[in-house]
Design goal:
The complex is a heterodimer of chains A (80) and B (427). With 80 residues, chain A is an all-alpha fold. Chain A is built from 4 helices and 1 strand. Chain A has helices spanning 5-17, 33-46, 57-63, 76-79, and one strand at 67-68. Chain B starts with 10 loop residues before the first strand and ends with a helix. In chain B, helix 1 crosses helix 2 (109-120). Chain B is built from 8 helices and 27 strands. Classes of the chains: A mainly alpha (80), B alpha+beta (427). Strand 1 of chain A pairs parallel with strand 4 of chain B, so a sheet runs across the interface.
Chain lengths: 80, 427
């Protein structure tokens, strides 16, 4: 099912808030699909979910779980 | 694990600035104090509470607005809490969460606090989803303990907890026992006080309770008197009854219409509870090893309780005299002792019962003389202990280690170190 813009924005906000996506300094906010897929893969792997790079139901459910407000160091690229 | 920073010192102060409204302040404090203990049990760290002024680690609750934190929360669910890394020390919890203890409902304050303290001590998030430092809350776990990855991370920062550091801490350490501002009652005289309770506790130690104080009774003398709340944090004085069950390792204390449960010196989650299936204001309690049941006494009646089964109390209380032949009603204390016999205490006297629960010939005898070593200077034979001693009336500490010297569980926590002091002194 195609993702609604709100769902996609919520997911990108989550990936940004918890360090899976890095807000680039020099270019505007929009991220390439590759960045988002890579960020989703990092999140899915750290959450022991099937690593698809897609924003599937299991991934969205996991993003709704209560958690700590600190970032996660699980995307090697952003960690650097 | 991920290391984000560390404190240059290992003896830290903390202050609890406010508490949530969804849980009693008593339970909330107990949860926060236990959260510190998880870390001080495995690393050479000590945490001392201060009631005012500056503290290294400051715990507080705020919601969507906060005058001091730019990182506001988002209402129930989603983000539960956050913390700064060393050496900043702020730890914030979302006050809009339903904070709980001892239940699967809501969000367990103790586990979340332990996670946030992990950050405040320098740990980042762990890749192990079952680790405490995993980013997502894995829910309430009744027998929670740190994951090996959590332990490896904190020890990478502060080293392992070794006997030397424990000794060093003994001098330095102020236990995480917040100063209880309640003035203790008068210190009792073991030689002239009617006992509130007697208990054969873990590691075969005999405890006598009177007023706000507890002391140990050994073959060679009495231990020093300590405030009950210094050993069993959160327990009041003037207890009605106390009983340790080797079957469950549980210690139950009774007072009024409440019951407290401890494992060693740590209160079990969810306690104290209301006594609602036996009468309040009990007189005494004992564990009978022959049928592994706990007996509760009040007036002329008793209840037999199976700790691990749903007990039908509809046919209780039963008359004490039907089962314990020759003992008085309204005992002040009772216990099964190491010699396989049952003892009842009342006033200045005690009764010894054989395995058939029948009072033995020559009883009652005098408690002060035969249990509390309070006798004249001249040497007398002590029928209870079979030894001749000529002790004095004041509590002399013997150096001979008791064969029952306790080996407290490896996880020493500050309260345990108090116990260490007591037990080593007593022995």
């Amino acid at each position: 099912r195609a993702l609604g813009p709100a769902e996609e924005k919520a997911a990108v906000d989550y990936l940004l808030q918890y360090g899976y996506l890095q807000k680039p300094l020099e270019v505007p906010d929009d991220f390439s699909p590759e960045d988002i897929m890579e960020a989703l893969r990092a999140f899915q792997e750290a959450s022991e979910l099937p690593v698809s790079g897609q924003l599937d139901e299991a991934t969205k459910a996991r993003m709704r779980q209560p958690r700590c407000g600190l970032e996660d160091p699980f995307n090697q690229k952003t960690l650097k | 694990y991920l290391l984000l920073g560390r404190w240059r010192k290992k003896h830290l102060t903390f202050r609890i600035l406010n508490l949530p409204s969804s849980i009693s302040s008593y339970k909330a404090r107990a949860a926060l104090l236990q959260a510190f203990r998880y870390w001080s049990n495995v690393a050479p760290l000590t945490f001392r509470e201060v009631q005012a002024g500056w503290a290294d680690i400051r715990l507080s609750f705020h919601g969507r607005q906060s005058p001091t934190c730019s990182n506001t929360f988002d209402g129930p669910g989603k983000v539960l809490a956050h913390a700064d890394i060393p050496e900043l020390g702020s730890v914030h919890f979302d006050e809009d969460e339903f904070w709980t203890e001892g239940t699967y409902r809501g969000v367990n304050l103790r586990i979340i606090a332990a996670h946030e303290l992990g950050h405040a001590l320098g740990l980042g998030h762990s890749r192990y989803t079952q680790a405490l430092m995993a980013p997502v809350y894995a829910g309430y776990r009744p027998y929670f303990k740190l994951h090996p990855d959590d332990v490896a991370g904190i020890q990478a920062l502060y080293g392992k907890k070794t006997p030397e550091t424990e000794d060093e801490e003994e001098e330095m350490e102020v236990p995480i026992v917040s100063p209880v501002p309640i003035e203790p009652g008068p210190m009792p005289n073991p030689c002239s006080s009617e006992l509130d309770a007697m208990m054969l506790g873990p590691h075969g130690k005999t405890y006598a309770f009177k007023g706000d104080y507890v002391w140990t009774v050994t073959n060679t003398g009495l231990g020093p008197l300590f405030r009950i709340s210094a050993l069993w944090e959160g327990l009041p004085g003037n207890l009605d009854a106390a009983v340790y069950s080797p079957r469950t390792q549980w210690i139950h204390f009774f007072k009024g219409n409440k019951v407290w449960r401890y494992i060693n010196f740590r209160m079990a989650p969810g306690f104290p509870k209301k006594l609602n299936r036996v009468e309040p204001n009990l007189d005494a309690a004992l564990y009978w090893p022959l049928n592994q049941k706990v007996f509760l006494f009040k007036g002329s009646g008793y209840w037999q309780w199976d700790e691990l089964a749903q007990t039908d109390f509809s046919r209780y209380p039963k008359p004490i005299k039907e089962l314990f032949t020759g003992v008085p009603d309204q005992p002040s204390a009772a216990m099964s002792w190491r010699d396989g016999r049952v003892y009842f205490f009342k006033g200045k006297e005690y009764w010894r019962l054989n395995r058939q629960l029948r009072v033995e010939k020559g009883y009652p005898q005098n408690i002060a003389r035969n249990w509390m070593h309070c006798r004249p200077q001249t040497p007398v034979t002590n029928p209870s202990f079979g030894a001749t001693t000529s002790s004095t009336t004041d509590t002399t500490l013997e150096s001979t280690p008791s064969a029952m010297a306790p080996t407290l569980n490896q996880e020493h926590s500050p309260t345990d170190s108090i116990v260490d002091t007591i037990l080593s002194a007593t022995d």
